Amino acid sequence: MRPFARIRNLFRVPHVSPVLRDMGGSRRRMSTLVLLIVLAYILLGAGDDSARFKTLGHRLMCMCGCNQVLLECNHVGCQYSDRMRGELAAGIERGENDSLVLQDFVQKYGTTVLLAPATTGFGSVAWITPFVALVLGLGAIYFVVRAWKNRPAPPLADGITPVPGPAMDQYREQARKETEL
After folding, report:
1. How far apart, in whole angstroms, are the C-alpha atoms of residue 158 and residue 172?
2. Are residues 61 and 37 in the same domain?
3. DSSP labels for 86-130?
4. Inter-residue contact 114 to 121 (CB < 8 Å)
5. Low-confidence spans in the chain with pLDDT less than 70
6. d(CA 126, CA 66)
7. Which of 28, 117, 163, 175 could form a cystine bridge with 126, CB 3.0-4.6 A?
8. What's the structural domain count of the chain?
9. Residue 64: per-residue pLDDT
10. What pTM does this model have?
């Protein structure tokens, strides 16, 4: 026997029927079918106008001053919400994409109509500023606490300054020896 024949025999697969051996092509077909099913599930409703209406309506704010999402404005007789919902539905029916519909609202009502600021231009400052303020605040807290911790102890009323920890332990030990306690 060749030197590596025994090792090769250890990893040899026992007899496999021709049906199971041909599963390679079947696996590819099965994985393709699963991929198509997953894609169909994900994209289900992609052309659904009511789903687009809801997603876009939840990205806009009602301009009546209530500071609520457009689709959730519940003021009785709100002059803006009904008109804005109609404009949103008309934009979707015209076949405009989401960004074009949102741009129409921005041009008509200003950037305050968007619930989230834009991620480009000056709008990126609105995303970055809270994080910068948080880091600066935490840094300020760190330095204030550090300054409080390292400040010297105030002198006592009769002018004696308190002794720090290790020196105080030395004085306590000396007092124990002298008083024999």
Report:
1. 21
2. no
3. HHHHHHHHTT--HHHHHHHHHHHH-GGGBSS--SSTTHHHHHHHH
4. no
5. 1-27, 38-48, 118, 181
6. 21
7. 117
8. 3
9. 84
10. 0.46
